[in-house]
Amino acid sequence: MYELPLNAIEHQYLYPSALIVSSSPQKVMTVLGSCVSVCLWDRTLAIGGINHYMLPYWNGSELASPKYGNIAINKLIEKMLALGSKKTNLVAKVFGGGEVIETSIASFHIGERNVQLAFELLAEHRIPVVAHSTGGKQGRKLLFETSTGTVYQKLLAGI
Questions:
Q1: Cα separation, 9 vs 58, whole angstroms
Q2: Which domains does the chain have, with CATH numbers?
Q3: DSSP label at residue 158
Q4: Maximal CA-CA distance, the chain
Q5: How far apart are CA 115 and CA 133, in angstroms?
Q6: Tens digit of pLDDT for each residue in 134-158?
Q7: Cα separation of 52 and 59, whole Å?
């Protein structure tokens, strides 16, 4: 039987419209264009979570999924609280929201609206944003470490 070494950290890929919250150390990778990821980290319990949403607001007609920022951020906070976190111990990092595609839909400013929503909801929950990298014309590749709250970012030329 093969056993993982004690220092092995699980790696996961976070797809759009999903989130991951973990009390065990994990490295979570995702790629963002106009989408946004909010990374939450509990400074006391050393646990973290990350989401990846595509659109700012759920319109009420489809399934209320983490595809929408207002659903994804609230679900992320709920899952952190379910693992024992307190809002007063949480800090946030916000990434993405680039306007990376030159089309007629760019006039909707989806990336900008996704970012604005993240800052508004986090402020409502009184969770401070301690770092962010948002907007611009480039995509981003992220690696989030749930046990340390560290986020590594690589800017991408074009998605």
A1: 34
A2: 12-156 (3.30.1330.200)
A3: -
A4: 56
A5: 10
A6: 999 999 999 999 999 999 999 997 5
A7: 18
Percent of the chain topping pLDDT 70? 89
Tokens linked to 55: 């659109």
Packed helices 110-124 and 69-82: angle between N→C axes, nearest 10 degrees: 40
Q: What is the pTM of this model?
A: 0.89
3-state secondary structure 81-135: HHCCCCHHHEEEEEEECCCCCCCHHHHHCHHHHHHHHHHHHHHHCCCCEEEEEEC
Query: What tokens does 74 get?
Result: 């609230």
User: Residue 51: CB partners within 8 Å, gap ≥ 6?
Assistant: 14, 18, 19, 37, 38, 66, 72, 73, 75, 76
